[in-house]
Amino acid sequence: MSCDCHANHCIQCSVTQCRNHCSDENYCSLERIQVGTHESDPTMKQCTDCMSFVRK
User: Fold this and answer.
1) How far is 13 from 36, CA to CA, in rounded Å?
2) From start to end of the chain, where are the E strands?
3) Is the torsion defined by CA of 17, 4, 2, 6 positive or negative?
4) Are 21 and 13 in contact (CB under 8 A)?
5) CA 29 to CA 24: how far, in whole Å?
6) How far apart are CA 50 and CA 56, in angstroms?
7) Backbone angles phi, psi at 47, to 5 degrees
8) Facing residues of 12 across strands?
9) Are 15 and 53 in contact (CB under 8 A)?
């Protein structure tokens, strides 16, 4: 599946289920992303989330 997106080489991403993922490369196509958390006191990377994720 080819992508007409422009990879932002400042944002690496391997989440192929996201609409913003460039299929040909492991990069995000967005100019910037929002990172958030689902925890009140995050202490590990598993506690963070890409709030810019959009399911394909």
Assistant:
1) 16
2) 8-12, 27-28, 35-37, 48-50
3) negative
4) yes
5) 11
6) 15
7) -85, -5
8) 27
9) yes
C-alpha 6/C-alpha 28 separation (Å) is: 8
* Contact predicate 1/7, CB 8 Å: no
3-state helix, strand, coil in the chain (%, to 5): 5, 30, 65
Helix-then-strand count for the chain, H and E: 0, 4
> Which residue has tokens 């944002």?
11
Q: pTM here?
A: 0.81
Query: What digits encode the pLDDT tens for the residues 8-40?
Result: 999 999 999 999 999 889 999 999 999 999 999
